[in-house]
Amino acid sequence: MTSSVLIVGGSIAGTSLAYWLHRHGFAVTVVERAAALRDGGYKVDIRGAAIDVVSRMGILDTLRSLRTEVRAGTVVDGSGKRVASMDGDTFGGRTHGDAELLRGDLTRVLYDLTGNDVEYRFGEAITALDGNRVGFASGSSASYDLIIGADGVHSTTRALAFGPEERFRHDLGYRIAICSVPNHLGLDREEVTYVGPGRTALVYSTAGSSDAKAMFLYAGAEPSLRDVYAGSGWEVPALLEAAGSAPDLYADVMTQVRMDRWSAGPVALVGDAAWCASPASGQGTSLALVGAYVLAGELATGGGFAGYERRMRPFAERNQKLGPANVKRMVLSTERQVRASMRMLAVMDHLPFKDRLLAAAMAPLHKAANAIDLPEYGAARSASS
Ligand SMILES: Cc1cc2nc3c(=O)[nH]c(=O)nc-3n(C[C@H](O)[C@H](O)[C@H](O)COP(=O)(O)OP(=O)(O)OC[C@H]3O[C@@H](n4cnc5c(N)ncnc54)[C@H](O)[C@@H]3O)c2cc1C
């Protein structure tokens, strides 16, 4: 008999897991809290092993056609003077073949792969869990053979099956905020970054978008951007003004999820819900894609949740280590560190081989992104766990 699987969360991990499980012969239902698939959003990267996964899904060319095409990254000082510029791929830590696109574009492509074959219930959320029985916000309930939480860093599935979020959450000591802003700088597929002590602000424009995105990364727990960025130079006051009335401001602590196990009885977690590496890792999207592939493959070929953990854990943990290290490079603690870094960047800007130097600095990211051998699970259908 076909096994029924409930996936909680219809973003990157949820939609790609739905694809693979359906392909392996499972009967899949996805519940997504949002009323509809979320378009747009910030830019995310697909790199390393995740490129193999999307290639096996047959969507690599489509995803490449949706690339943000960010072609340059520039660092400016407080007066707005250019300190250094790099090519967009180097700036974003991408080597040949890696793809950067908007999160909403990626989710749309993943959803379109299965929209007709998988039952999607938008505007529905999990609220209760008792063994195989799931209660929903709408008041209904149903039983499934397996329940997979792909509901992100603040996962309700995790809270219901494993315990309160605080038990698994490791805050890195920083906050992040991102929103759409008018492209008042007239950026054309480029990113500009300002670095102040304990606070970084950047703005970028992507192919096909008339607006821009502003991102704020800063040390501490203060939620008020205005307080944290008071006195900042460059275009920060204008970005703060725009953020104040942005319709889509997203703000959160920079956190990681660390768990000893990702499954309990019929429930397992995937993506940020299981191992959130934090936005600073640059690997959250790729981990979600690879995790979904491995989880579905192990379920289909008899490895079960144990096989999934065995294959996925070393990869997830290695990529998680990137988060705390990267965020320290993105947000410099003191005025002195900022000055030293600006001097170094200014010198580097004149070196003919600067892009190669920067690419070498990204080696740990690329090694981590490739640190898994992906089995060929085939399209076998044996939907028993
Ligand atoms: C500001 C920011 C910048 C980022 N930048 C990058 C980057 O440059 N590169 C990169 O690779 N990654 C980046 N990431 C990380 C990346 O977005 C995540 O790692 C990735 O989205 C994880 O996918 P996921 O499907 O596991 O979780 P999510 O994308 O968080 O999706 C979880 C889904 O579950 C739904 N949901 C939540 N609770 C419930 C519930 N109770 N019932 C039903 N549905 C529910 C949510 O609505 C959501 O759709 C960034 C993240 C942020 C926040």
TrEMBL record:
Domain of life: Bacteria
Gene3D superfamilies (alphabetical): D-Amino Acid Oxidase, subunit A, domain 2, FAD/NAD(P)-binding domain
Entry-linked PANTHER family: MONOOXYGENASE, OXIDOREDUCTASE-RELATED
GO molecular function, one term: FAD binding
Domain FAD-binding positions: 4-159, 255-300
Pfam family, one: FAD_binding_3
InterPro entries in the record: FAD-bd, FAD/NAD-bd_sf, FAD_aromatic-hydroxylase
This protein's name: FAD-dependent oxidoreductase
